[in-house]
Design goal:
Layout: H1 2-10, E1 14-15, H2 18-22, H3 29-41, E2 45-48, E3 64-67, H4 70-77, H5 81-86, H6 88-107, E4 114-120, E5 126-133, E6 137-143, H7 155-164, E7 168-175, E8 181-182, E9 187-191
Parallel strand pairs: 6-7, 7-9
Antiparallel strand pairs: 1-3, 2-3, 4-5, 5-6, 8-9
Helix pairs in contact: 1-4
């Protein structure tokens, strides 16, 4: 189990593919899935379900794996601030898991009911976190481990907005900058620091 948790940490914020987790152990997918269920019950891992809607076709229906504690994930992977400066992909994955968990924490204080999903289609347009409020309104959050934001960073959010119409409230790309920047109809770049300031 400790080794499985280490492998899961290396796959945080990625699509959950049982064979990827099973390969290092020479175990079957059902066995690995049972172990992952135990780790979910212990609140160490979370499988974020895919979000889907009849207006969006060609969806990927695979859940996304997230470590609940990114500090634990970093310790298991033996990464630190210096190594994350050079491994931007790992930093991005850990940051996405961190933001997702912080959004869940913030939602727990609300009187509304929130459900969390992810969205990805077969053209690889994705939204890291899709938030549905009270079964009606939808918002999307992408996370970017960079201090700059470009229009292409909004491709997945634009697809989600256009498909959802008036149900779509807002789409944000959270980034390592200081200013809230508009990027079109209901789309914004927002500093990650706004989660705690």
């Amino acid at each position: 189990m400790p080794r499985l948790l280490e492998v899961a940490a290396a796959h945080t914020a990625e699509l959950f593919v049982g064979t990827d987790l099973a390969a290092p152990f020479k175990l079957s997918r059902p066995t690995i899935r049972a172990y992952v269920a135990v780790l979910e019950a212990l609140f160490l891992l979370e499988l974020l379900p895919p979000w889907h809607n009849n207006r969006l076709t060609r969806m990927i229906k695979t859940p996304k794996l997230h470590m609940v504690d990114t500090g634990l994930a970093s310790a298991l992977l033996a990464v630190n601030q210096a190594s994350l400066r050079t491994d931007r992909i790992m930093f991005g994955h850990l940051l996405e898991s961190f933001v997702f968990q912080d959004l869940r924490r913030l939602a727990s204080f609300s009187e509304h009911r929130y459900r969390f999903y992810h969205f990805r289609d077969k053209d690889k347009k994705e939204v890291g976190v899709v938030i549905e409020r009270d079964g009606a309104l939808v918002a999307g959050v992408e996370v970017k481990a960079s201090s700059t934001v470009l229009p292409r960073d909004f491709h997945g959010l634009t697809k989600l907005r256009d498909a959802m119409g008036e149900r779509f409230v807002q789409g944000v790309v959270m980034y390592d900058g200081e200013n809230v920047l508009p990027f079109g109809d209901r789309l914004y770049a927002v500093p990650i620091a706004s989660l705690w300031t």
